[in-house]
Design a protein that fits this description.
about 375 residues, alpha+beta, six-stranded antiparallel barrel, 16 strands
């Protein structure tokens, strides 16, 4: 072997060894779990959505009638507060009827006491009369001989009837029975009033316009309006909301309260948001849903109208704990065939046997270090 060939072989071997040494050196930091950042969330996708700063909610009537405002224009109202009555004349009429029923209820309760005492007095009079009749039918032995056996038999039969009536009269005067009768009558009157109050409350609830959120009330109309009229708005000043339709089925299957978002504004500021609620679109497709989030600017961040509009929104899966977030790209190109055969869960457990996989996202895996 000539020197030129040896130098070529050594050069090739040197390059190969250098390359192997370089790969090995590069792998070591990647396999150090503590070198990856601790985070409480993993990115799961970007979706188009809409951001509204100082969002306004319309107050729409569900029936024809006169609108009567229960909160002032420009007043700050709370979620769940009744801000207006629709078809207010019906509510007023129902309230008047209820007020009359309450007055009647008091009179009936007093009358019940009086009627109850009158019944007791009547039963006592009846008892005394029966006792008097029974005494009047008592005969001495001499009188019994005079009237004869047939008459005495009829007399005894009548006495038995009166004694049965006496037993019934005494039962009607039993203190426990009297107390129960009075209690039941009172309960019936109370139940009648309770039903009337519940019926009125249902009517008021059906006729009420309720503030869906905290905010400032704006009156737009009052007086007689048609069904479906926008009579007012509630502006959520200093607040911002984001709404989006999550099309990825895996992300959509997550419990919505485990999702969070980050919105990037025109100026580049990134504002986080937390889950608010889900709106089901029953008239769309297979029951599509819209996820709503509340933006939560950090100290020093401001929400202005420039943030409003169509935005690409980053969605994250909350972990509920701190974990090392390992990008899949750290290993994907190193051993793609092995990862494909084993799957990410088994592959990560082979690299870090003492670790715990918290969540596997589309581009990263959350791994917790066991103590």
């Amino acid at each position: 072997m000539n020197g030129s060939k040896m130098r070529s072989i050594l050069a090739v071997m040197g390059c190969t060894l250098t390359a192997v040494t370089s790969v090995t050196a590069d792998k070591e930091p990647r396999r150090n779990l503590s070198s990856y950042p601790l985070q409480d969330r993993v990115w799961v996708g970007n979706f188009g959505g809409k951001v509204e700063v100082n969002p306004m909610v319309d107050l729409e009537t569900k029936r024809f009638g006169r609108v009567e405002w229960k909160a002032q224009d420009d007043e700050e109202v709370e979620a769940g507060q009744t801000v207006a009555w629709q078809a207010a004349d019906h509510v007023r009429h129902s309230q008047n009827q209820l007020d009359m029923l309450k007055e009647e209820h008091l009179l009936k309760m007093e009358a019940t006491e009086w009627e109850h005492q009158e019944k007791i007095n009547a039963n006592r009079r009846s008892l005394r009369e029966l006792e008097s009749k029974l005494r009047s039918l008592e005969l001495t032995p001499q009188e019994r001989r005079i009237v004869g056996e047939e008459f005495v038999a009829r007399l005894d039969e009548r006495k038995s009837e009166i004694e049965a009536e006496l037993d019934a009269a005494r039962m009607r005067l039993d203190p426990e029975r009297l107390a129960t009768e009075l209690k039941l009558e009172r309960q019936r009157l109370i139940a009648d009033l309770d039903k009337a109050q519940l019926d009125h409350a249902d009517l008021v609830n059906n006729m009420s316009l309720i503030a869906p959120h905290d905010g400032v009330l704006r009156h737009l109309e009052q007086g007689d309006v048609d069904k479906g009229a926008i009579v007012g708005r509630i502006e959520r000043q200093g607040r911002a909301v984001a709404s989006l339709k999550i099309v990825d089925p895996e992300v959509r299957s997550e419990k919505p309260e485990r999702l969070a978002i980050i919105v990037t504004g025109p100026s580049g500021q990134r504002v986080q948001g937390s889950f608010s609620h889900v709106e089901k679109m029953l008239d769309v497709g297979l029951g599509s849903v819209i996820h709503h989030f509340e933006l939560e600017p950090r100290e020093g961040q401001s929400l202005d109208n420039e943030m409003s509009g169509e935005r690409m929104i980053s969605v994250y899966r909350l972990l509920g704990r701190q974990a090392r977030v390992v990008p899949k790209s750290a290993f994907l190109f190193e051993e793609p065939a092995k990862i494909q055969n084993m799957g990410w869960a088994a592959y990560i457990k082979e690299i870090w046997p003492q670790s715990e996989i918290v969540y596997i996202g589309p581009t990263a895996i959350a791994v917790a270090e066991k103590p």
